[in-house]
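Researcher: We're teaching a course module on how sequence relates to structure. For the next exercise, students receive a sequence and then see the predicted structure as tokens, so they can try to spot secondary structure elements on their own. Here is the exercise chain.
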Amino acid sequence: MSTSLGSKLLAVRRAGSAAVMGVLNVTPDSFSDGGDFLAPSAARNRVDALLADGADIVDIGGESSRPGAAAIPPREQVERIEPALRYAVGRGALVSIDTTSPEVAERCLELGATLINDVSCLTEPDLAGVVAKAGGDLLIMHARGPMSRMPGFSEWPDDAYADVVLDVAREWSTARDRAMERGLARERIFFDPGLGFAKNARHSFEVLRRLQEFKRLEAPIFVGPGRKSFIAAVDPSPPAERLGGTIAACVISAQKGAHALRVHDVREVRQALAVLGASEDNEVGHA
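Model: And here is the predicted structure for the students to work with:
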């Protein structure tokens, strides 16, 4: 398997932009698009749309990652994911799999996935060993426990963290150490601060404001603001109407050093990044 994902992300970052990870949930209960792409034909169409809109990575999940969501057996996750994964790989896409299950990860890596997106902060350390054996990469998102037992964002008190940025960095570093103990190379481990996961809106905005401080972790930084509930804390709206807030969070993240952005609305975020890049390029608009 290719060892170049981390270097590709660094190259995109050096060019002044961020990669875009497009979301494909093949689930009936995801908070934003649950049920929309559960049918294989709908999932294939979604893959086509994400790639046409410029997604650098297609992130496929067969289990909802919203706080409190029920756990899905590995076999069922694979049954949901496999048709879309095979199709995306056949299209030449770089594919990430959103799962905390070592069994799901193993099968999906066999089928051509490159990246495993773990949203539990490695509550299943064996996941890292599976990724290491397959020669893949692991994105570890900061959280505090599995989704099925994690309270909603509004239930986290302000004092859940002494300093949210320092605490997130410390807890994530512990997870990275566990991954390395399972044989996964440091350069194959990527960081996501986990906006909206084990954090209330105040925590999430603090993470955004100080995102550049996570550079000290020396790992590619992924940020997933797409349609998250923290946006509704400043402008009450359902998930489908949070595009403006998503774009704002993406631009802030890119300005502060994010290497990749996980979103549902790839075309719109691409356009926002292009405008950001043009605003920083003195040559644009000059003959």
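Model: If you want an answer key for the exercise: The chain has a mean pLDDT of 91. The chain is about 40% helix and 10% strand.
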